[in-house]
Every structure is written in C-alpha cells, then in structure tokens.
Amino acid sequence: MPKVAVYNTKGEQKGSIELSPAVFAATGTKSVIHQVYLALEANAREPW
User: Fold this and answer.
1) Which residues have a Cβ under 8 Å from the Cβ of 13 and sit 6 or more positions away?
2) Which residues contact 42 (CB under 8 A, 6 or more apart)?
3) Is there a contact between 13 and 5 (Cβ–Cβ < 8 Å)?
4) So what's the pLDDT on residue 11?
5) For the chain, which residues make up each domain, given as ranges?
6) d(C-alpha 39, C-alpha 35), whole Å
7) Could you report the per-residue pLDDT of 1-48, keeping only the tens digit for each?
8) Of 14, 15, 25, 34, whose CA is between 20 and 30 Å from 44?
C-alpha cells in the first residue's frame, strides 16, 4: 500500500505512515456505495 506524509499543525512534514490494506483496498459495488450515500444524506436532514 502507498505511504502518505504526516504533517503537524504548522504544515511541517513530521514523518510518513503506510495506509492499511484492510481499509483502503476495500471495493464495493455501485449500488452499495449509492445506498451508503443516500443513508448519509437522509441522516443529514434537520428535523422540523
């Protein structure tokens, strides 16, 4: 998996970490991604 830089709040690079394949190598179908998106949008609505 790729490595990404780690920065502090001042914008200075302080190291790097390797991304976890368990999280970033996951795949999903379009329908699953669409269902997750719809659920997030529905939960973002403010109640009356």
Assistant:
1) 5, 6, 7
2) none
3) yes
4) 95
5) 3-44
6) 6
7) 789 999 999 999 999 999 988 888 777 788 988 999 999 999 888 776
8) 25
- Nearest-5° Cα angle at 22, 21 to 27: 90
Q: State the pLDDT at residue 48.
A: 66
Instruction: State the pLDDT at residue 29.
Output: 84
Q: What are the DSSP calls for 4-48, one per residue?
A: EEEE-TTS-EEEEEEPPHHHHT----HHHHHHHHHHHHHHHSPP-
Encoded amino acid at 17, one letter:
I
Q: What torsion, rounded to 10 degrees, do the Cα atoms 39, 28, 21, 1 define?
A: -110
Q: Would the pTM count as exceeding 0.70?
A: no
Phi and psi at residue 10, to the nearest 5° = -90, 0
